[in-house]
Every structure is written in structure tokens, then in C-alpha cells.
Specification:
188 residues, 7-stranded mixed beta sheet, 6 helices, single chain, 7 strands, alpha/beta
């Protein structure tokens, strides 16, 4: 079984508001869509990590979805990743799919492809045209190591660079580009 972890804690300074609160022009919440991508991609349990505007963003989270607040979210994505990993209990399964809220074109098909065959020793990540991106699959054996070295906005980058990671090409399914500024919001 594979769990899902949605990182949505940042302030979105270039966006002008926390990305957990962004909606497309048609009203679709990035937060709600991203949770659905993980669930529909096969994650049996999904947890969202909030930080900036946690109370407001938390009202968007569907009932039954665990919410973790990264109190030190302002120090970077690593704080969200550490808080999320620390929240995963024994029922989280053998691996976790780490996804970011600001990847609006990533679909459940991407999650499903990257997570196929995931187990406790898995390290895999989506690639788009050969360029590594998100989501990232972390087998349970790696959670403590990732949490120990995660720093700033680099998240698990140093850990992944030091280990053998399977790149799973998903460029036929999505571009995997994060959206950082309002003009780039799909439909906006």
C-alpha cells in the first residue's frame, strides 16, 4: 500500500497568496484537485501539510483527510516534508507519494505510473522529457534519512542525489511544471 503526502504549506510569495488557496478561473481549488490526484492515483490514505494560512486552507480539505500543520513552514519546503513524514504512522503503508500543490497539470495517471510497484526500498520520481520532477515516491526505508537531511527549499534533493533513484518518464502525460505567478494559472 502507498500513502500520499501533499505539500501545500508555502506562502506563495510570487503568486501573491498561499498556493493552497489558489483556484483556477473556473473555481477549481488546487488543493482539492491535488488531493484527488493522489487518491485517484491509487494512494490509500492521503495527508496534506499546511502552513501559511493554515486555518483558511484547512477549510478546503475534505472531511476525513488528515491535516498536518508545519509550524516552521517559513523555513522552506523541507519543513513541510519533515512534518509530513513524521505524521505517517504504521498504517501509511510501504511507501509515500510526495506531491506538490502547485503542479496543476499533474494527473492521477502520473501518480499511478510513478507509484507502480512501490515498496519499502523504493526511490522513484517522475521525469518530464528526462528532467526529474514531482511526484516523488519514498519507500519507508528512506523516510528517516530524508527527514534527517532535508533542508530549506531543497526538500529531499540532497538525499535523492546521493541515492539510486528510478526516473519514471511521464512527459507523455503532463509537463510537471510548477506554477509560481498569477498569469501562469491555468485558465487565468
Amino acid at each position: 500500500m502507498t500513502a500520499g503526502l501533499l505539500l501545500a504549506a508555502g506562502a506563495g510569495s510570487r503568486m501573491g497568496r498561499p498556493k493552497a488557496l489558489v483556484r483556477d478561473a473556473d473555481g477549481t481549488s488546487w488543493l482539492v484537485r491535488s488531493l484527488g490526484v493522489l487518491r485517484d492515483g491509487g494512494c490509500h490514505r492521503v495527508t496534506v501539510v499546511l502552513g501559511a494560512a493554515a486555518a483558511e486552507a484547512g477549510r478546503l480539505v475534505p472531511a476525513g483527510v488528515p491535516v498536518v500543520v508545519a509550524e516552521d513552514w517559513a523555513t522552506g519546503m523541507a519543513a513541510s516534508l519533515r512534518a509530513g513524514l513524521a505524521s505517517l504512522g504504521g498504517d501509511a503503508g510501504d511507501a509515500v507519494v510526495v506531491h506538490l500543490v502547485d503542479l496543476p497539470d499533474v494527473t492521477a495517471d502520473v501518480v499511478r505510473r510513478v507509484a507502480t510497484g512501490a515498496g519499502p526500498s523504493t526511490l522513484a520520481r517522475a521525469a518530464y522529457g528526462g528532467v526529474p520532477g514531482h511526484p516523488v515516491v519514498l519507500g519507508r526505508e528512506h523516510w528517516a534519512g530524508v527527514a534527517a537531511v532535508a533542508a530549506g527549499d531543497a526538500g529531499a534533493k540532497a538525499y535523492l542525489a546521493a541515492h539510486d533513484v528510478t526516473l519514471v518518464e511521464c512527459g507523455d502525460l503532463a509537463r510537471g511544471l510548477d506554477v509560481d505567478t498569477p498569469p501562469a494559472v491555468p485558465g487565468g
